[in-house]
């Protein structure tokens, strides 16, 4: 297993109609020029400490990208089952509205993993996001490719919001090759897909995989940083 040294964050509570949400804020350190703010939502099966989201919070601020991890009200309340998708969108909108002044004045990028990725894609255009960073976008429920969620991401792309998707090669909720096939038309010009070899929906890899968990985290961070600077800032 990998260990991450995530710097102590500032935690801000944000009221929502569904209870308090929390913003876990890892700002750009003093002496580093801020280039973007990245707001990330967690998935339905974990919180803001999942290894990929935690890696971004630990390593991007030193590169000028402040990271704010949104902890949804259902998670703050200690419930084990995620609330309905529209409630996640409400909390994301309120979280962006509540960002401290220090996180403003630079391009806003929204994203997250799984359910948080879906919410970011749905809300990106109305939030004025310069881009979306999506980890393990759940293209469909496990084993049910006919129930596609393609339109959620397609809507952001159609609105002119570019997207980075980091997808596991063996993701049961949409393998990387399924995602590539779903966006093979004109939308592909606005979507960058990074494939994690051997990874599942949690971006975890088996022992026989060519990458270790440390390698996966480095790939997530490096891909996100390069893409944010190129697409959202540049």
UniProtKB/TrEMBL annotation:
Any Pfam family matching the protein: Abhydrolase_11
Highest taxon of source: Bacteria
Record Gene3D superfamilies: alpha/beta hydrolase
SUPFAM superfamilies: alpha/beta-Hydrolases (SSF53474)
KANL3/Tex30 alpha/beta hydrolase-like domain location: 36-228
InterPro entries: AB_hydrolase_fold, KANL3/Tex30_Abhydrolase, NSL3/Tex30
PANTHER family the record matches: TESTIS DEVELOPMENT PROTEIN PRTD (PTHR13136), TESTIS-EXPRESSED PROTEIN 30 (PTHR13136:SF11)
Protein name in the entry: Alpha/beta-hydrolase family hydrolase
């Amino acid at each position: 297993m990998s260990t991450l040294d995530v710097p102590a964050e500032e935690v801000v509570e944000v009221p929502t109609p569904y209870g308090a949400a929390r913003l876990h804020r890892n700002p750009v350190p003093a002496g580093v020029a801020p280039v973007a703010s990245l707001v990330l939502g967690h998935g339905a099966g974990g919180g803001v400490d999942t290894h990929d989201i935690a890696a971004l919070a630990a390593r991007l601020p030193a590169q000028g990208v402040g990271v704010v991890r949104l902890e949804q009200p259902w998670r703050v309340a200690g419930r084990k089952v995620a609330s309905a998708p529209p409630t996640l969108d409400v909390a994301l909108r309120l979280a962006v509205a509540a960002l401290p002044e220090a996180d403003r004045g630079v391009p806003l990028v929204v994203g997250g993993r799984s359910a948080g990725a879906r919410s970011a894609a749905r809300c990106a255009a109305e939030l004025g996001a310069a881009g979306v960073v999506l980890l393990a976008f759940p293209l469909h429920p496990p084993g049910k490719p006919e129930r596609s969620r393609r339109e959620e991401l397609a809507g952001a792309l159609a609105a002119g919001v570019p997207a980075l998707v980091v997808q596991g090669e063996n993701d049961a909720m949409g393998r990387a090759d399924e995602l590539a096939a779903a966006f093979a038309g004109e939308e592909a010009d606005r979507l960058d897909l990074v494939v994690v070899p051997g990874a599942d929906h949690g971006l975890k890899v088996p022992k026989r995989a060519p990458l270790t968990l440390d390698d996966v985290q480095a790939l997530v961070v490096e891909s996100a940083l390069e893409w944010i600077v190129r697409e959202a800032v540049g």
